[in-house]
Design a protein that fits this description.
It contains 23 helices and 21 strands. With 691 residues, the protein is α/β, with parallel strands linked by helices. Helix 10 crosses helix 11. Bound molecules: adenosine-5'-diphosphate and magnesium ion. One of its GO terms (molecular function) is DNA helicase activity.
């Protein structure tokens, strides 16, 4: 019995002053506000109410619709109270069984009533039966549905029947005229209007499989439209940015940049040279650079950043270097000081742990321009710091920053009327298709080679029953002069418990490895204590470091060659890869041991498998994308990711390529159409894609 649904109000009225009904609010929550939003809300599956299957031809466990006359209807006790209705047609009879029911239902299905019933049949104790089918009272003239019945993604407050009506009327009202000029859509695809009508109300003959796996041409058309809108909005953002003015920063012969190259203790790899050249070309232009430098953990991004900073500073401008954590900022600081200070640079150090007078002095140095390089955590830089002449901002581990944060940062960093250049660095490479969509507005440089002399990391996976054996391995490694990380997981909801775990593990290892220096590092320690522990570990005085994920990003101790990650099943793939990247930085053969507690979930299994099979960050990123899908891959804060509702970046790469090729042409030749396309698809969300 389908409950009669109240007729939904036109979508436009939902913004009116009168109180909104619960379903209206639920629709808004799903983003179903404009007619076009409703028209673009597509079924995720269909029910076939277009035909009647004879009861005698029913097959087990397959959804079907039958029609017949009730011959018997009663409540019986069979283990529990239930309503049993026997339905008969010319070909046979079927038992309908209801474990929950209202007296009204019993009345409605009384003997001699004609019923149309939909559900899955199966063989029960008393012959063929359907449990809790959908039931409709009919007569001989009740027509069958002419098209498949759509089932829409809904929510608890939004009944399917209400949503169906709302979508049908939204679809009827929406302006679906073709925006795209003739001949630009890939051949063989229907018009948008035909595609939508088809997908909302497919004919009985439709290929359900092609509809449900989205390979049908109607789906292809929608995905193409969506990808095109997204490409257009990115392209627009890119062109807007190109109108902004930035200082042209050029390295001079014999300048700071060349002097830094002269004092480096190593030769740049070919990949490092190439990306340095790409960055230098950008910096020399009077438009702001917006470049992502990606390179696997340990590929040597820091020195590339230092060289870019040297170009900016050599040209008379300031450079800001931001990192997500203090530990990482501190690492940069030490490395950069080691390289740049002998060249006569003044560096300001701004993080939460620099306080009082010292802090004010640093802020003053940044504001006056006396400090040419400002290093710190992003939080501090966002709030307080003023620059005299900021030419370049470098953000490390950019994936840790959300879209909104990046936008805010750009505003903040504006000096005078000029935009600074921006270099973002990430060890989590963005797979190509993602880069082409979400980061179409970002130029990408890739370091695809590790510095020479690294030995590959061997990864081993054990259950926690092998924990003692692992501790034995540590003892042997330490006796051999190795340094070891032991990582304990941090589960956000129970930081206290984790802290206890880390502390207990520290005590346990200190006791079992008597005579060995075992340190502890976690997020609740004061920055000074953290720095002290890191210094001991870096200098080799400490052999084993028990840590929570505070060491996840950027920590660089080349002598560390063994890493144990406990409860590895609790970590994400990118995080595991980042952690593992802390070893394998020196010449020593390195080992990463992943200890897990069974049972493993399927995704947990594929994560650990990926870790054991490859150390290539790009391969890891691809698999991560497979496991999690693009939305999660990008991180929840980057909710711009949700904008791709239909297209699948893996499967629809050809459509993406076509959309990408069309976008610039359309923007040049039919800017008005381009604008309408973006508005139709993205509404007000388009801003989000600019960050
Ligand atoms: P990441 O890309 O993960 O930030 P780092 O910049 O921390 O990597 O570099 C990792 C280590 O490799 C550092 O100790 C760094 O000094 C060293 N390194 C960087 N480039 C080279 C190179 N061309 N040759 C040798 N060692 C290098
Ligand atoms: Mg780094």
């Amino acid at each position: 019995m389908t409950a009669p649904a109240p007729a939904p109000a036109p979508a436009a009225a939902s913004t009116a002053a009168k109180a909104k009904s619960a379903p209206q609010k639920a629709m808004e929550k799903l983003g179903l506000v404009r007619d076009i939003d409703l028209a673009l809300h597509l079924p995720h599956r269909y029910e076939d109410e277009t035909r009647i299957t004879p009861i005698g031809a029913l097959r087990d466990n397959e959804p079907a619709q039958v029609e017949g006359v009730v011959v018997d209807c009663q409540v019986e006790m069979r283990g529990r109270r239930q309503l049993l209705v026997r339905l008969k047609d010319e070909s046979g009879s079927l038992l309908l069984r209801f474990l929950h029911f209202y007296p009204s239902q019993q009345k409605q299905m009384s003997a001699a009533t004609r019923l149309r019933v939909r559900g899955e049949a199966r063989i029960g104790f008393f012959g063929r039966e359907m449990v809790h089918p959908v039931v409709k009272v009919v007569d001989d003239t009740t027509p069958l549905a002419q098209s498949l019945t759509p089932v829409y993604p809904a929510s608890a407050q939004l009944p399917q029947a209400y949503l169906r009506k709302a979508v049908a009327s939204g679809l009827a009202r929406a302006d679906l005229r073709e925006i795209l000029p003739h001949g630009v859509v890939p051949p063989g695809l229907p018009s948008l209007k035909d595609a939508l009508n088809y997908l909302h109300h497919p004919p009985p003959s439709a290929q359900l499989a092609a509809l449900e796996d989205h390979s049908h041409p109607a789906w292809q058309r929608l995905k193409f439209e969506e990808l095109l809108a997204q490409q257009l909005s990115q392209l627009r953002a890119q062109r807007e940015r190109a109108l902004l003015v930035a200082p042209a920063l050029r390295g001079q012969p014999g300048g700071l940049h060349e002097r830094l190259l002269g004092v480096l203790p190593f030769q740049l790899t070919a990949a490092q040279q190439r990306v340095c050249e790409e960055i230098a070309q950008d910096l020399a232009r009077p438009q702001p650079m917006h470049r992502l430098l990606q390179g696997d953990v340990g590929s040597g991004k820091t020195v590339v950043a230092a060289l870019a900073a040297a170009v900016a500073i050599g040209a008379g401008w300031q450079c800001a270097l931001m990192a997500p954590t203090e530990i990482l900022a501190e690492q940069h600081f030490r490395k950069l000081i080691g390289w740049l200070e002998p060249l006569g640079l003044k560096i300001a150090w701004i993080t939460g742990s620099v306080k009082g007078k010292a802090r004010q002095a640093m802020l003053d140095a940044a504001a006056s321009g006396e400090a040419q390089l400002v290093v710190g955590t992003h939080a501090v830089i966002e709030d307080k710091v003023r620059f005299a002449k900021l030419g370049l901002a470098i953000i490390d581990e950019q994936h840790r920053f959300g879209v909104a944060q990046r936008l805010a940062l750009r505003q903040k960093l504006k000096a005078m009327d000029l935009e600074p250049h921006m270099l973002m660095m990430s060890a989590t490479p963005i797979p190509r298709t993602l880069a082409m969509t979400y980061f179409a507005d970002l130029d990408v440089s890739t370091i695809d080679e590790l510095p020479p002399g690294r030995s590959p990391i061997v990864t081993k996976v054990f259950t926690d029953s092998k924990r003692d054996d692992v501790i034995d391995k540590i003892r042997m490694a330490v006796a051999d002069g190795a340094q070891v990380y032991w990582v304990c997981p941090l589960v956000e909801e129970s930081e206290a418990i984790d802290l206890r775990n880390a502390t207990e593990t520290h005590e346990e290892l200190s006791a079992t490895l008597a005579g060995t220096s075992v340190g502890l590092l976690h997020g609740r320690m004061s920055p000074a204590d953290k720095a002290a522990v890191m210094a001991q570990f870096s200098s080799g005085q400490m052999s084993v470091l028990v840590a929570t994920t505070v060491i996840e990003v950027g920590v660089d101790v080349p002598n560390a060659s063994l890493m144990v990650i406990e409860h590895a099943e609790r970590f994400g793939l990118a995080q595991l890869h980042q952690l593992r990247g802390r070893v394998g930085r020196g010449a020593k053969a390195s080992v990463c041991v992943l200890i897990y507690t069974p049972p493993l979930s399927d995704t947990g299994k594929s994560r650990l498998k990926a870790m054991a099979e490859t150390t290539d960050g790009f391969e890891i990123a691809r698999r991560d994308l497979d496991i999690r899908g693009p939305g999660e891959f990008m991180g929840s804060r980057q909710s711009g990711a949700e904008l791709l509702r239909f297209a699948d970046l893996q499967e629809d790469a050809p459509l993406l390529v076509a959309a990408r090729a069309l976008a610039p042409q359309l923007l040049d030749r039919a800017p008005d159409a381009a604008h309408r396309q973006v508005t139709r698809w993205l509404g007000t969300k388009a801003e989000f894609l600019k960050a």
